[in-house]
Each structure stands twice: as C-alpha cells, then as structure tokens.
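Posting this for the archive.
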Amino acid sequence: MSGQSGLLAAGLDGKRLDDIEVVDVHQHYGRCFQFNMPHRDAADLLAEMDRIGIDKSIVSSFRALAGDPVPGNQEVLEVCRQHPDRFRMYFVVNPHYASRLDQLFAPFRESPFLAGLKIHAEIHQCPLASDAYRWAWRTAAELHCPALVHIYPPRDLEAVPVLADEYPDTNFLIAHHFGPENLDRALPLIEDKRNVHVDTCISALPLGTMERLVAELGPERVLFGTDMPYLNAGGQVGKVLLAQLDDETKKKILAGNAKRLFQHRL
C-alpha cells in the first residue's frame, strides 16, 4: 500500500489493513441492554477486528453502562487479562455512585490494562456540568488517562469548553464527534481547546464530515473508533480510508493520534 493513494485503494478494494497499525478507541463488550446484537464476547470482537485489521481496541462494558458498574467493569478487565495484546479498557464512571467512586476504582487504578475513563451523560441522565463528574475529570488528569465522553446535545454542548478550560490537564475525547447535526455549533466552541478531541464513529456520516473535522480541529485531534458492536467495523474504517485526506493524515487518525493521546497505556 505504497504511494499517495495507497489507503484509498485499500478501502476501495476492501483489503485487510495488514501494513499499517489500527487502534479502535471506541468499542463495547458484553450483552447490550438496549437491543439484541451480535459480537457479544471477546471471540466475536476479535474475529471482526482480525477481518478488518484492527490491532488493538479500547473497550467499555455494556453492563457497567446499564447501571451495574462493579461486575461490568470487572468483566472487561478480565477480557483484557485474557487478551493483553489486543484489548485495553475504559473504566465506566457512573455519576450516581459519586460518593463511592474512589472505592470502586481502587482495583483498576494501577492496572496496566486501564486506558481511560468512560462518561455517558445521556445514558446516565446526568448533565455533563454536574459536580458528580468532577471525580472523573480530576482522576483523568492525575493518571494521564483520557476521558471518552458521550454528551447529550444540545444540553451539554456549552459545558465542554468550560470543562476544558477548568481542567486543562484532562484530555477529553468526544464520542461520535458531537453528532454531525451538531457540528456547526460544536466545532467553534472547541476550535482552540487543544485538550478536546473527537472520535470518528457514527451511524451516518454526511459527505465531507471527515475532511471538515481535520480542517477545523487539525489532523492530531481526530481518532478512529468503530462503536462495535453497535456499528459495523468495515463501514467505520471505510469512512477514514475513503476520505479525501492524504495517507499520513489517515494513519494519524487510525492509530498515531491514539498512541500519542493514550501514551504508555496502549
């Protein structure tokens, strides 16, 4: 896959990505609490990763998101232990357990498999600006582990730049790049917030969105994610490969930016 159009050709040909590194920063594990879907266990996820050529994924627990954080986070830690070369984990932060978060997090704090924290303001029905999340922002800064943040637009849009300023040592990774329908409002809010990044995964991506993210945020602040098993990994990687971007930028999105942002945790 040499040459200026190597990755574009790979995408058009449907080739497995064997010649470049790919890191998926947004993946889920377990039985979904919302609806039935495939790829419930590690073997399913690995088979899909191998089909595409995804080298490593950062995974969060459906069970923990659904309101059972102790066994949910623990089961993902066990998956990482069983497949140490392929998986890292997000510790799901449930704001409704705010008074117990230090206790719940203790078994994970020093784990070599911890990559970051996961905040889902929509599922947990807790505004991003709530004091219940302050533990997460402080801990992410202290441990240098990014926070993957699902906001609930438009309620939480204005909170992102405020938090970015209040916690300059915390790296915020916004899931689904705020949603394409919110970009006109969201991108100007974070344009100069160098500690706010976005991931690429989304069910429907309007033409030109990938190029717009790179143009307005810079190529270093866009990271590849699949949202597996919610979404098909092939379609998600295809959005990067087929974008009108040079190969070096695509390589940054597919792995380079994740390796820089998560540093030694990958």
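Residues 6-265 form a domain with the TIM Barrel fold (CATH 3.20.20.140). The two ends are 25 Å apart (CA to CA).
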